[in-house]
Amino acid sequence: MTTIGIIGAGHIGSQIARKAIENGYDVVISNSRGPETLAGLVTELGPNARAATVLEAAEAADVAVVTIPFKAYTEVPVEPLAGKIVIDTNNYYFERDGHYDDIDQGRATPSGKLQEHLPTSKVAKAFNAILAADITGDAFPAGDPQRRALVTASDHEDAAAFVTKLYDEFGFDTVNTGPLSESWRVDRDRPAYSTRANVAELTAKLAEAPRTI
Fold this sequence. Notes:
CATH superfamily: NAD(P)-binding Rossmann-like Domain
Order of helices and strands: EHEHEHEEHHHEHEHEH
Structural class: alpha/beta
CATH architecture: 3-Layer(aba) Sandwich
Strand order of the largest sheet: 3-2-1-4-5-6-7-8
CATH class: Alpha Beta
């Protein structure tokens, strides 16, 4: 049984946990306030979920999900995630996170900076451009004309492949933009950000994206 360790139990993290449990994964979920604050969520998720500290979630994870405010990315444990796929849902909001000149000027991406922080992990961008409620509420089986597509990007083929598998299990198609250096195409304020679209439509919106806003 694959264990998904979730670092960040907010709206996105909680919804990913629900879909992961629904699809047969074990979940270890954490937040910055301590496992005791997650008792209600874990009760809802059932016996295949448990609450833990951030460090414990990272250690237990076969695959980790980082879903915290971008400004806290350097607080993600490094050694426990070595060699593991790390799914990054984060978005950079300078109003909340402060300005990062390298991102503002188009020299870096948020997911790329997490990859730099986790040099021995395999970071893949995912779930950053969908409303939390839609992770459980807007999923459709493969081939359904209503099925929407979501974006991934990674410097590691196996990480992008895992996200593609997870998206499919959760009820979404995938558009892979390639390496993390291209992940800005689905960042905030770009045409593909939080846009409901199928594969063809999403691919076109990614191509329209300006490098800087």
